[in-house]
Amino acid sequence: MSETPAHAGTGRFRGPPPIVEATGVSKRYGPTVALDHVDLTVAAGQTHALVGRNGAGKSTLVSILTGLQAPDAGLVSFAGRPAPRLAERDAWRQRVACVYQKSTIIPALTVAENLFLNRYDRGRTGLVDWSASRRRAVELLATWSMDVDPRTPAGDLSVEQRQFVEIARALSFGARFIILDEPTAQLDGAAINRLFGRIRDLQAQGVTFLFISHHLAEIYEICDVVTVLRDARQIVTAPVAELPRADLVAAMTGDAALTGRRAPNRGVDAGRSPALRVRDLTGADGAYQEVSLDVGAGEIVGLAGAAGSGRTEVAETVVGWRAAAAGEVEIAGRRPRPGSVPDALAAGAGFVPQDRHRQGLVPDMSVADNGTLSVPARLGRYGFINTGRRDTIAAGMITHLAIKTPSPHLPVSGLSGGNQQKVVMARALADDPKLLVLINPTAGVDVRSKEFLLNKVQETARAGAGVLIASDELDDLRVCDRVLVMFQGRVTTGFSHDWHDHDLVAAMEGVNLDA
Amino acid sequence: MPDTTVADPSAPDRPTTASHRLRLIGGRIPLARLRDLALVPAIVIIAVVGQIVSPVFLQTDNLLNVLQTMSEIALLVLAETMILIVKKMDLSLESTMGLAPGVAAWLVVPAGPGHGLGLLGGGWAIPLTLAVGALVGAVNALLIIRFGLNGFIVTLGMLIVLRGGLTGISGGQTFFRLPPSMLYPGTASWLGVPASIWICLTLFAVAVVVLGWTSFGRSLYAIGGNLDAAKAAGIRTERVLAIVIVTGSVLAALAGLLLSGRLASVASAQGNGYIFTVFAAAVIGGISLNGGKGTMFGAFTGILLLFMIQNVLTLAGIPAQWIGALNGLIILAALIVSRITGGRIQD
């Protein structure tokens, strides 16, 4: 009774068989159960959401639905017919495609080449007929009304355009069922709206989507039915309209709902020198101009803004990742050499970079090594590493941040996204920073880890550190005592902690609600 | 109704499947340690085969002979391993190995049949050799790190320049009548074991400790594994890279010194073609060309395996004309064997 039948939505879509139907799908890896008798039915034209915390089994289900892995038990069928064998890649491509977070577009080739990679039109001589390939690309993009020039090198496209190209490529194989794996993770608000517009258009043209996202609001915006996985099991499948948010969060986490505004942080400690003082900072590449801001000891300041607003660049300049053309940065009363991360860290900064895969972690190194990378001096004397001391520090981090890992010696790439982010956070906190700088600290992190990380941020501030959070994620900004909004490289607005969502979003998008 | 009763906060996040498999294989011993030892069975097998082929094989003199002949190239392997771990490469090591002692000999050997200029006293030879190595490394580091040029092409150019430089100063001939100080490292014997073996093994031992147990060594892996992450963690990446590249060239110069001492001459082609064996040994020993992976011990077992096999072939009486082709085949076979025993794709 606690589980709604998997066919909950089918009453509305009687007639043609569902575009994809998985029944009783199970998958094990050694002793670990990755999927336990999961049912999934997606009716044609429906947009189905698949949600769950990291490690709930979403990726496994996607790899089974796209024919990358065979299930141990259970059946997958497409439009009423059983799925092709794994080796028949072409047959799979005609039925389903997945647009992953990591792009599979080759940046150096043009859009047209990417669309028809390895299946170009050939002339009579057997050589590639470029003009025919280009024509076909134009037709394809026009059919799905995508506004991309097929002659552009794919590397020049924006993230969303690249996603459109991937979707178009999938459609050109004949697939009408597309899985979108966290398509909005790297998009700003405006781009997300455009993506959703496209999704709705394509839906109208008969394309069916399975939508994987951490952002519950998005699910309510564009999905019809939601399936929640937790700990390899299917917890619920229900029409979105009949599932209140609190219940959805509860189904994902297994906890009572945890939403609502947080209590504001305690007041700023005015007696102490500010943790951060930025004056007239202007970026070398014009990403931001004349930015000034202060972060007091014990204060959490949000730096909000859409992608490209310069918020990330300002935060990166503060920690020395990049050097400013003009202006000064003072961390806890000291002025580190511009453009030197080691100097900024020595002055008392802790840094959680924007993208943990690109800047945060060394994937093949262990959890312990990654966590202690920035504090060599504490590992032993004369540059030697005392492995015992390192393991003690690592064990402390694992307990302090509740990192779920079987061993501190496991390569960090083996952890789930949320736990990887905790390792990055642990490293930033390792030296008791006076200033903590975080960029998109909860991107791609599950709901509970997110809650946990933000609690840690508040805890750090209560202990007397200043915190600067550069993010466009409203949940990140809710923990802030003040939020500064950047728009097109300048700080345009400031909010105290009692801001309203729509005011903040309007400021980030550069929209004036009063006008 | 959603299920809200099954709240199990202790349920562990499932690690990704690949790492899960790794853990199963590795058991309680970290897998990295096992991979380190991947070539040890192969070395044991070759030792047994060698003993069957010729009873001379396991005698001390023969083993010392193997170690001594490999000691110079082993130092190149040591240097290249450090450089590969930080995800760079240095092809010019083999010509540094020729040019550095070549310049020293040119300036030190008296004019006359030894082809030198005789400008400096014999005592300058060793410092000169190492200084030339450091200078070459500094130029490489400047071009690669400061100017951001591609390391492969820079060091390929450097390889040709240095090789040509040695031919130029020697007139294509061989320097001999080297001063005693240059002969000493390659010919001396300490406690009954050639000095070059001591030097080689000591440097490897130091390298194992530095790479495994110092922050500097770990920063090499961090830089090779993810340069941006290393930078964000406050590692002075440019400085570390420069140190690695310069140290590599100094080690190559030292290797050249050992070889010149042993042969009592500096041929204009000294070190020619060594770099291929060096790369082969490193990859066989588990060093990834993509950086961040592999250990110094693994690299040592790689070069040791190659030289043991060559020694066995020589003892078996294989005609000298065929040794070249066989060397190539051995490298390919060893790669296949290490792929099987290591069980991983060599990337």
Explain what this protein looks like in three dimensions.
- The complex is a heterodimer of chains A (515) and B (347).
- Chain A contains 17 helices and 19 strands.
- Chain A is α/β, with parallel strands linked by helices and 515 residues long.
- In chain A, the strands form four sheets. Chain A has a six-stranded mixed beta sheet with strand order 6-7-8-3-9-10, with helices on one face. A six-stranded mixed beta sheet of chain A has the order 15-16-17-13-18-19, sandwiched between helices.
- Mean pLDDT of chain A is 83; it is low at 1-13 and 256-261.
- Chain B has 347 residues and is an all-alpha fold.
- Chain B is 68% helix and 1% strand.
- Chain B is built from 15 helices and two strands.
- A two-stranded antiparallel ribbon of chain B has the order 1-2.
- Classes of the chains: A alpha/beta (515), B mainly alpha (347).
- The interface between A and B is large, with 68 and 45 residues.
